Amino acid sequence: MLALTRAVPTSLARCELTHLARVAIDVERARAQHELYEAALRGLGVDILRLAPADDLPDSVFVEDAAVVVDELAVLTRPGAESRRGEIPSVAQALAPHRALAFLAAPGTLDGGDVLRIGRRLFVGLTARSNASGLAQLTAFLSPFGYEVEGAAVDGCLHLKSAVTAIDEQTIVLNPEWVDGSRFGAQRTIAVDPAEPMAANVLAIGGTVLVNASAPRTAERIAAAGFAVVLVDQSELAKAESGLTCCSLLLA
User: Fold this and answer.
1) What is the pLDDT of residue 18?
2) pLDDT at 17
3) What is the pLDDT of residue 20?
4) What is the C-alpha R_g of the chain?
5) What whole-number distance in Å separates Cα of residue 207 and Cα of residue 250?
6) Which of 15, 140, 6 is nearest to 73 (CA)?
7) How far apart are CA 205 and CA 162, in angstroms?
8) Which listed site, 2, 62, 104, 225, has its alpha carbon 20 to 30 Å from 78?
9) Is 159 a catalytic residue?
10) What is the pLDDT of residue 252?
């Protein structure tokens, strides 16, 4: 497995925010945490390909939002925040040796953080960052390969994957306050601890699940369900409204 990542930019404090108040971000600490995140991926057998730094793009460390990658194709997105659209060319260049490329066009908007894949089904959060045109274009790109794509209502958070992520094809981690979990067809749902509302964004690599260190109670629930858990401190990056999936693009 290969993961595309990018260094934390010096401009991170100017990141886009939707649901969180702006607070001071320690960029050097964020960089140290991001390096530990990359180290955790390497420890699970993932190869890291770091993109060139983009200090003029405050959200550029959150590479997940720039593309939706399946086995047959990489769809380059058109982020809902105009300030993020400059991230796309470098991500496209990095993906080109690995996948055929397709590109969303106006008036569509789509953030990768709004796209949850469970097997051959993809769910797209209809949020402030991803619209119906983006959903329709993604459907047109992926349906010829046998993927089903459908929209999902989200309330109270930035992206769909702020509210729900999949550990495997049968198991989701969910904040039920933000999205209706019944629509995903999961056989098993692990609800976040109510005191840890941001904890649903976890990153599964094989049978191991990366969980934010700020969510120990939710981590205990995931471990009790039989999964190996690795805690990763992302406290500074979380101030930029990010989660564990945000900082990498995974290619099987």
Assistant:
1) 84
2) 84
3) 81
4) 17
5) 15
6) 140
7) 18
8) 2
9) yes
10) 83
One-letter amino acid identity for 140?
A
Catalytic residue among 15, 157, 159, 247: 159
Nearest CA among 226, 188, 189 for reference residue 209: 226
**Active-site residue 34, yes or no?**
no
Q: What is the mean pLDDT of each run of 10 residues along the chain (252 residues)?
A: 97 87 93 97 97 96 98 97 97 98 98 97 96 98 98 94 97 97 94 97 96 97 97 94 95 89
Listed in sequence order, the residues at least 6 apart from 96 whose beta carbon sits closer than 8 Å to its beta carbon are none
- CA–CA–CA angle 70, 71, 76 (5° rounding): 40
Per annotation, catalytic residue among 15, 34, 157, 246: 246
The residue type at 108: G
Q: What is the pLDDT of residue 15?
A: 85
Cβ atoms of 25 and 69 closer than 8 Å: no
SS3 string, the chain, reads CEEEEECCCCCHHHCCCCCCCCCCCCHHHHHHHHHHHHHHHHHCCCEEEEECCCCCCCCCCCHHHHEEECCCEEEECCCCCHHHHHHHHHHHHHHCCCCEEEECCCCCCCCHHHEEEECCEEEEEECCCCCHHHHHHHHHHHHHHCCEEEEEECCCCCCHHHHEEECCCCEEEECCCCCCHHHHCCCEEEECCCCCHHHHCCEEECCEEEEECCCHHHHHHHHHCCCEEEEECCHHHHCCCCCHHHHCEEEC
